[in-house]
C-alpha cells in the first residue's frame, strides 16, 4: 500500500499513545501509514520520540511543561495541552472530541490506565480501537460483531454486565443463547464470515494481531 495519502484529520482515526510498549512497532507503522493526528500523553513522550515520527499534540500536567520544552523543540510546531489531572488519557479524549474526531486508535495498558472505562464512556461519540499486548480490543457497545476470517483465528470475548447471552456462528462449538459471566475464547472453523452476538449487551472483542494482515 502506498504511504502517500491525503486525508482530513477528523476523517482518519487519530492515534493516541499512552503507553508505547504495548504494540510492536511493525504494527505501529501500519497505524501511522495514513498520517493520522498523533497525540501522546506525557507518559509515552520519551518512547514515541524514539520512533522518529512527527508528534502533533502532547497532553501533560502543568508541572511537566518545562521538562517537555527541550524534548519537543525539534518537533515544532507541536500543541501542548495542559490538564490538572492524573488521568491524561481521559483528557486526551476530551480534546479529540472537541476537535471533531469520530474515531481513535489507542495504545494503552489495560491494567495501568483508565482506558477501558474511558472508551466505554465515549463509545457513543467516538469509535475506539484499543491496542494492548499486540492485541486489538474493540468495545461492541451494541452487542454484535462480525468479520471475514481464516480458519483457526482465535478471538477473546469479555462480557461486561450480568445477564449477557451469546449466539455465535462460524466457530468450533458455537453458542446458542448461552449465558457467560467470565471471558471465553472462540476459534473460527471457517474461512469466511463469523459472528458473535449478545442479547444487545455490550462486550469486549479481543483479537490477536498477525504480522501478515493489515489492521
From TrEMBL:
Domain of life assignment? Bacteria
**This protein's name:** Thiamine pyrophosphokinase
